[in-house]
Design a protein that fits this description.
The complex is a heterodimer of chains A (808) and B (120). Chain A is of the alpha+beta class and 808 residues long. In chain A, 36% of the residues lie in helices and 18% in strands. Chain A is globular and about 90 Å long. Chain B has one domain.
């Protein structure tokens, strides 16, 4: 080959190899840094090996001992509170640095910087909504000697110690190398943003927009009837009163008519939220918790059970640890990125949380006029919008510029059709971390209740049980009250319908040592129709109540209860709705093998149950047979499946108590619930026969219903499952979806009488997929088993434990 | 014998570079080989060999020290190849080999291209 040609070929080949090594090619990352066998993604192999070691951390005041149990549970024993939080930051970062970085990026609208355009919608929305602004405000409001400020500073130091360590050792966690970026230093505001992410997940709702779209298409009359304030079905509120004042919450007499402009605005935001990438949007939250007083417990001590239902991911949203220092002796789970135990127990009290579900999001239509550019009319005069600008760096693209307009109500969320801003309780500064530090330190109900007084968002049902046999439940949070109007729809922003304050703390739903000896919450409406405050509509903010009803049914039975009973109830698959409806269905349908299966069914959604499949398919068919013609004839723009929970409550109520309701009338002739049930059942058998064959005994639930635990970075090859699993959306063992990717993210059972603390979560302590602690707890969780929550001393002497000696 | 010694030295330099994050070290070593060694048929295979060992030896050491199977499976999953552990291992070795090979080829080609000018 002529030397010039040879040189040209060598130069081109070298350039191609170096380009791929420096910058990557197509879907491949920069091959040089990513696959460097010593400092690239292969470092996950060494990271997966945990051994006892001595480490020197900048900022420590005294030596700290970290004991790692065989399953990865971490026990931090520090001689000062400062060191406890610093070491917590280090331990979190050691196992979850990439997750922490993703969480802060999600909240601060910087995901696009590392994953590209796919996250741009999420970034724009988060910056509009304002988690960063709220976090910055919360930080600036903390006094220099505030305990949570000190904790956040120490925690950030610990995280940064870990970042410095991996940078010095060239051992950056694999996902950073694969994505080609370095984590920036951690700040206290980052922790507040991570807290804000959870608030967003649990508290933000687009339901008024959904109601507006329903109103526009389905019509105001049916929307008012089918989506009422008070639940139409039988429920089990835990706080039955008496309440202060007289009932004032009236049914919706006449739903306001939604205009075209309002519907356009609602559709714009609704569609934007629906289009957010999986895992980056609001997912809501469900959960169970309850407590049994010492007098009703077999051990004589109070019992507590809690299982928050969240998106199940690998790594989990939870990290299990104990924190011991002069000021803290607490064990439970924390969110990586925050320095507190959110659910757990200390030496005297135990607590867990479920989502409160009250309406926390209100949409306001700003009145504008072309004669007053960049202004809105409020309280009798024209106000100028404030604005704040952001740059959003985009991997592989140009930086996006975003300007967010702010009215007195909050950020303008859309200017299509009707300029609409959003008032969201999550934007109220809420020192949740400080509150949780107070809870971590509380030793009795008074201290617990006092600590929760400053909790604003997300509203949470905090269940309580102590070592003296007492139990309680407080639905802590901000309950916005408005002067008037229809808060379940977007409202005029001219001032008359603004949020005027919250329900006084003494009047929010709560209970302490009730006569029945039990308290329970499962996202149901906490109070009865007599409660004198508006806290949200029944069907769109609160759970239909089937889990709560089932939990209440079991806890209310005669006899003493044990920790084993608590565990059995947490993993119970009895569908309360089925127990109500199936007996009526059996009266409506002719004899058949399918009917025989339902007749002998115990209403449990077990993997091997064909009756479970028949029931679930029937219920979907029954909903479709009742409501689809309305959806089709009126061209409803909200997917019916999105409001099935609400419609299901209506259908349940009509089936149980109003079987001749006009909703069943169609084709000009009168029908009853029984008629529609027959039609739906025939359809069910036909569908299942086509899907699984003619023998109903083979239609087992496990063929239909599976569970998957998804990798947080959405790498499907690192998921757990899908695998057949029991339960459904209505069972105490919650498993909504097909496949289900949400459910009990942590199960904890405390028996103060026996002195036992047991828990499990579906995941592992490490985000490293090569680590034995990546998914080591999942099978235990699937099997309904628990692990003992050891003290630090017990963990130190347990076999297989490793110890890190952290030195100043 | 000189070639063998040079290869050993090249491998040592490459491994040392790789260990501190200088993944491009085999390319540079290969480049030097190509420039110094007048015979392309020797320089280029030697460069490729140095590149391969420069990346494969740290990998082998990691396998001995901590085991690589779960990591290789995880990387395969991340790359979308299921759990085919061999793929990331082969890919890693190929990257090292290509770095050494292209470095040596470029050096050798540059030498032969520039040599007439130099000799004039």
């Amino acid at each position: 080959m002529p030397s010039a040609l040879n040189a040209l070929a060598a130069a081109i080949s070298s350039a191609a190899v170096l380009y791929a090594a420096f910058f990557g090619a197509g879907p491949l990352p920069a091959l040089g840094t990513a696959f460097n066998p010593a400092t690239g993604a292969w470092t996950m192999a060494a990271d997966a090996v945990i051994s006892s070691e001595t480490l020197h951390l900048a900022g420590l005041q005294q030596p700290v001992r970290v004991t790692l149990e065989q399953d990865g549970t971490s026990h931090i024993v520090a001689q000062t509170d400062h060191d406890l939080f610093l070491a917590t930051g280090y331990v979190h970062a050691r196992f979850r640095l990439f997750q922490m970085d993703l969480l802060r990026r999600q909240g601060e609208g910087r995901l696009s910087e590392v994953v590209g355009k796919a996250a741009l919608d999420s970034d724009r929305f988060q910056l509009q909504l304002g988690l960063v602004r709220t976090a910055q405000f919360e930080w600036s409001a903390l006094a220099p000697d505030n305990r949570s400020r000190l904790a956040l500073v120490a925690y950030a130091q610990g995280v940064n110690d870990r970042i410095a360590q991996v940078e010095a050792d060239h051992q950056l966690p694999a996902m950073f190398t694969l994505l080609g970026y370095q984590p920036k230093p951690w700040t206290p505001i980052d922790s507040l943003i991570v807290k804000g992410d959870m608030t967003y997940t649990l508290d933000f709702s687009d339901t008024p927009l959904v109601m507006a779209l329903l109103d526009k298409s389905l019509g105001p009359e049916l929307t008012a009837q089918w989506f009422p304030i008070l639940p139409p079905n039988p429920q089990s509120p835990y706080d039955p009163g008496p309440y202060p004042g007289q009932p004032t919450v009236a049914p919706i007499a006449a739903m306001a008519q939604v205009t075209d402009a309002e519907a356009t605005a609602a559709a714009d935001v609704y569609q934007r939220l629906a289009a957010l990438p999986p895992g980056m949007g609001t997912t809501g939250g469900a959960s169970n918790n309850w407590a049994v007083a010492g007098g009703k417990s077999a051990s004589g001590g109070a019992l507590l059970a809690g299982d928050p239902h969240l998106h199940l991911t690998l790594p989990s949203i939870w990290f299990q640890l104990t924190m011991d220092s002069p000021g803290y002796h607490v064990s439970g789970v924390s969110f990586p990125g925050t320095p507190v135990v959110a659910i757990g127990h200390n030496q005297h009290i135990a607590w867990s949380e479920t989502n409160g579900q009250n309406q926390a999001t209100f949409f306001y239509e700003e009145k504008e006029d072309s004669a007053h550019p960049n202004q809105y009319f409020w309280n009798g005069s024209w106000q100028t919008y404030k604005s704040v600008s952001y740059d959003i760096p985009v991997l592989g693209g140009s930086t996006e510029h975003l300007t967010v307009k702010l009215s007195v109500h909050g950020p303008v969320i859309t200017e299509r059709g009707q300029t609409t801003s959003v008032w969201w309780a999550g934007n109220i500064p809420s020192q949740d971390l400080d509150v949780l530090l107070g809870v971590d330190q509380a030793s009795d109900f008074q201290g617990f209740r006092t600590a929760l007084r400053d909790w604003h968002a997300p509203s949470q049902n905090f269940v309580y049980a102590d070592d003296k046999g007492n139990i309680g439940l407080i639905s802590a949070g901000y309950y916005p009250q408005i002067a008037g109007g229809q808060p379940w729809l977007p409202m005029p922003g001219t001032g008359e319908y603004d949020v005027t304050g919250t329900i006084p703390y003494d009047n929010i739903p709560q209970a302490y040592d009730p006569p029945g000896g039990v308290v329970w919450s499962a996202n149901q409406r906490q109070v009865t129709a007599d409660y004198p405050y508006y806290i949200g509509t029944a069907s769109n903010f609160f759970n239909p109540g089937y889990r709560a009803n089932e939990i209440h049914r079991v806890l209310s039975q005669a006899g003493k209860l044990s920790a084993a009973d608590m565990m059995a109830l947490q993993t119970d698959t009895r569908d309360y709705l089925a127990s109500e409806i199936v007996p009526i269905l059996l009266q409506a349908i002719p004899n058949s093998p399918s009917k025989d299966l339902l007749t002998n069914w115990d209403y449990r959604m077990e993997i091997n149950s064909p009756a479970a499949t028949i029931w679930w398919t029937f219920w979907q068919s029954y909903l479709a047979a009742t409501f689809d013609r309305y959806w089709h004839s009126r061209d409803v723009t909200v997917a019916r499946s999105e409001v099935n929970g609400a419609l299901g409550q209506d259908l349940e109520a009509w089936t149980l108590g109003d079987p001749t309701n006009s909703v069943f009338t169609y084709g000009g002739s009168s029908h009853t619930a029984s008629d529609v049930m027959q039609i739906a059942f025939t359809s069910t058998v036909s569908t299942l026969t086509k899907q699984f064959g003619a023998d109903p005994n083979t239609w087992t639930w496990g063929k239909v219903h599976q569970r998957v635990i998804e990798n947080l970075a959405q790498v499907s090859g690192l998921n757990y499952g899908p695998r057949p699993d029991r339960g459904d959306a209505n069972t105490p063992l919650a498993a909504p979806g097909f496949p289900s990717s949400e459910g009990p993210s942590w199960r904890m059972v405390v028996d103060w009488g026996a002195g036992t603390f047991q828990a499990i979560y579906p995941g592992g302590q490490s985000e490293n997929p090569a680590s034995p602690w990546y998914a080591n707890r999942v099978d235990t969780w699937f099997n309904g088993q628990y692990a003992a929550m050891l003290t630090a001393d017990a963990a130190t002497s347990a076999s297989g434990s490793k110890t890190w000696s952290l030195q100043p | 014998m000189k070639v063998v010694a040079a290869v050993i030295l090249g491998v040592l330099i490459s491994v040392a570079g790789v260990l501190v994050g200088a993944w491009w070290a085999p390319f540079v070593v290969g480049l030097v080989f190509g420039i110094v060694e007048p015979r392309a048929r020797v320089a280029i295979p030697a460069g490729a060999f140095v590149g391969l060992l420069g990346w494969a030896l740290p990998l082998a050491a990691a396998q001995i020290r901590v085991g690589l199977a779960p990591t290789a499976q995880s990387l395969a999953a991340i790359m979308g190849f299921g759990h085919e552990a061999a793929i990331p291992i082969v890919l890693t070795c190929v990257v090292g080999l290509l770095l050494g090979l292209t470095g040596a080829w470029l050096g050798s080609a540059g030498r032969s291209f520039l040599q007439p000018a130099i000799s004039r």
